Amino acid sequence: IHFHERLHNWSSSNVRNRIMENQNKIIRDCQIHPTAIISPYINLYECEIQERVFIGPFVEIQKGAIIKRGARISSHTFICSGVTIGEDCFIGHGVMFTNGRFTTDSFETGRFLNTKEEQTIIGDRVRIGSSSVLLPITIGFDSIIGAGTVVTKNIEPNSVVVGNPGKVIRK
User: What is the DSSP-derived secondary structure letter of residue 155?
Assistant: First the structure.
């Protein structure tokens, strides 16, 4: 078994309504471009993977997520529904995307008030360092997010962001 598998014979028409469970991959109802490289030990559900994308091992990509051409998703990354990753982006190891900001009505009851799914948009040519966490935000093109950064607010293009919470240190 090869570590990476090219899905040359897969097109949108024959990937839909099909579940692939070989080489420890679960791929269900996805649109995957034939030039995408998909590693083993992944879960892909109802997402779109465009041309020249690399998906590393132990990655999950959920319904409605879009990974645009030339993006590289490193191992152990979680991309939830509502996420769009721009062209030629690099996502480091263990990056966690979220799609909700949950608040409670009080500490006593702990009831969730906001469970609405929100969008996360990553611009083109963005670099996100390993172990970063992204709340539902927009990151402008050509930005760099340092390793371990927790991004809680929208980021303008050409920014460098580090820390917890993330702070812009250069534009």
Answer: B
DSSP letters for 77-134: -EE-TTEEE-TT-EE-TT-EE------BS-TTT--BS------EEE-TT-EE-TT-EE
Q: Are 28 and 45 in contact (CB under 8 A)?
A: yes
Residue 21: CB atoms within 10 A of its CB come to 9
Judge whether residue 15 has pLDDT over 50: no
Q: What local confidence, expressed as pLDDT, does residue 11 receive?
A: 46
Amino acid found at 105: D
Query: What pLDDT does residue 24 have?
Result: 81
Whether residue 1 is predicted with pLDDT greater than 90 in this model: the reply is no
The reported pTM is 0.83
58 bridge partner residues: none
Which of 119, 120, 126, 150 is closest to 140 using CA atoms?
126
